[in-house]
C-alpha cells in the first residue's frame, strides 16, 4: 500500500517523474534514429567509410544526370 500512497511511507524516492509530452516525443525520436542507424550498419566494420562511399556515389550520379541533360546526348523526338 505504501507504493500507492507515497506520503505514508517514504516511497517518494521511488516515484518517477514523467517528462512533458514534447520532451518524451523528442526522446522517442532520438531512440528511433539510433535504432535505425544500428540496424543499417549491422555487420559493417567501418560505417563511416560506407557512408562516405554512398555520398560519393550519389554525387557522381548527380553529376552524370546533370551532364546528360545539358549535353543533349539522349533521345530526340522527330515530328514530321
Automatic annotation (TrEMBL):
Coiled-coil residue windows: none
Gene Ontology CC annotations of this record: endoplasmic reticulum membrane
One Gene Ontology biological process: positive regulation of autophagy
UniProt-annotated stretches for the region Disordered: 21-80
UniProt feature, compositional bias: Basic and acidic residues: 21-40, 48-64
Key words of the record: Lipoprotein, Myristate, Palmitate
Designated name of the protein: Small VCP/p97-interacting protein isoform X1
Record has Lipoprotein as a keyword: yes
UniProt-listed InterPro entries: SVIP, SVIP_metazoa
The species this protein was found in: Lates japonicus
Xref: Pfam families: SVIP (PF15811)
Biased composition, class Gly residues, residue ranges: 70-80
Amino acid at each position: 500500500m505504501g507504493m500507492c500512497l507515497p506520503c505514508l511511507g517514504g516511497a517518494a524516492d521511488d516515484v518517477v517523474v514523467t517528462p512533458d509530452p514534447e520532451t518524451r516525443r523528442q526522446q522517442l525520436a532520438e531512440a528511433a534514429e539510433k535504432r535505425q542507424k544500428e540496424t543499417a550498419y549491422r555487420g559493417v566494420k567501418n560505417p563511416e567509410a560506407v557512408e562516405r562511399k554512398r555520398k560519393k556515389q550519389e554525387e557522381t550520379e548527380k553529376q552524370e544526370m546533370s551532364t546528360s541533360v545539358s549535353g543533349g546526348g539522349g533521345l530526340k523526338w522527330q515530328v514530321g
